[in-house]
Amino acid sequence: MLSPLHNYVLLERLEEQNKTAGGIIIPDNAKEKPVRGRVAAAGPGVYDDGMLVPLSVRVGDTVLFAKWASSASEIKIDGKDYIIIKESDILGIL
Description:
The chain is an all-beta fold and 94 residues long. It has a single domain, classed as 10 Kd Chaperonin, Protein Cpn10, Chain O, CATH 2.30.33. The protein has no helices and eight strands. The two termini are 24 Å apart.
């Protein structure tokens, strides 16, 4: 498994529902990429004035991240798709 450095977080995308609340099935080509993910790994944090400031997210947390995050990179590890992103592009913990 990949161990992110500094303030980077490795996320596993969580698939969104393929049905609307009214029961309409959304085809794959009309779906948007999900913006929810589960933290698979997280870096130790960043140094500020010589002190290590740990990240706010932990492995296993479900998070909401920015759709067009500038730091996001999609990667594949052992055939599984992941996204690596800076903690600052995570909007909140669900």
